[in-house]
């Protein structure tokens, strides 16, 4: 089927197909986010954590930070980075820091480090 118009440009059928693909992708992403929110809520409950309004969980921000670490360092750095950022923020909050500020500070520190960090030469030796 030719989806181009007489000028060789994408026709209405091609545009409609692209629009449908974009909509399907958006629906899939929304479903993935709902799944992650449900999982986070269940895990938080199992761990005895209250993720109410006092400590909102920004899943998109966490996934973004994980992606930065995975691409800048190596894929396994993603869960390690998010764990350490959360641990750092949790310790700071336990010492009286605002949880949102502590998380933002720890996240920004990790993001900045990914732009400047390189593996030390002696780290590859056993």
From TrEMBL:
Region annotation Disordered: where it falls in the sequence: 1-22
Pfam families: DUF6457
InterPro entries on file: DUF6457
Record-annotated DUF6457 domain positions: 34-118
Record's protein name: DUF6457 domain-containing protein
């Amino acid at each position: 089927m030719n989806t181009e118009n007489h000028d060789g440009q994408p026709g209405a059928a091609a545009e409609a197909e692209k629009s449908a693909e974009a909509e399907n992708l958006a629906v899939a992403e929304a479903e993935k986010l709902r799944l992650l929110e449900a999982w986070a809520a269940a895990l938080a409950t199992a761990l005895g954590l209250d993720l109410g309004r006092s400590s909102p969980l920004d899943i998109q921000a966490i996934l973004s930070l994980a992606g930065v670490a995975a691409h800048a360092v190596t894929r396994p750095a993603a869960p390690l980075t998010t764990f350490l950022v959360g641990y750092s923020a949790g310790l700071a909050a336990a010492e009286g820091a605002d949880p949102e500020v502590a998380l933002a500070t720890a996240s920004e520190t990790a993001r900045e480090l990914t732009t400047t960090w390189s593996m030390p030469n002696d780290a590859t030796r056993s």
